[in-house]
Specification:
The chain is mainly alpha-helical and 129 residues long. It contains 5 helices and no strands. 82% of the residues lie in helices and 0% in strands. The chain is elongated and about 55 Å long.
């Protein structure tokens, strides 16, 4: 990937934002639909929904960070943290509306941030080879 110049920066930023939005929407929709289908078909108890929702948030954070940081050479940590901001906002708004429990919101926020951090560490370690 070539160096970023002033003319290329706007296009690169728009491309990054589009990747974040598309990967966020599709990962949340697909994973929630898949988990809902599994819970429905296996006729599981609805008490496991907060745990499944937490797992979906963490997996979505990893997917979003991984997809949005492709094509970049540097600053993986910053890009990963920026890429999960829409998911964090979605999680906080979901908590304010549903009041699912303070413990789950804390676990979800830390899980999302740790997932983005893990992707940035993996990306930067692959770059050094």
């Amino acid at each position: 990937m070539p160096k970023i110049n002033a003319g290329n920066a706007k296009r690169l930023l728009v491309k990054f934002a589009v990747k974040i939005i598309i990967s966020s929407v599709f990962s949340i929709i697909i994973l929630n639909s898949l988990c809902s289908f599994i819970i429905l078909k296996l006729d599981l108890d609805l008490n496991i929904l907060p745990y499944v929702g937490t797992a979906v948030c963490i997996i979505c954070a990893v997917i979003i960070s991984f997809i949005s940081t492709t094509g970049f050479k540097n600053n993986f940590l910053m890009l990963s943290m920026i890429s999960v901001l829409p998911l964090l906002i979605f999680t906080i708004i979901n908590f304010c509306i549903n009041k699912s429990g303070a413990v789950f919101i804390v676990v979800r926020i830390f899980g999302i941030l740790i997932g983005a951090f893990a992707v940035s560490v993996i990306r930067s370690s692959k770059k050094s080879r």
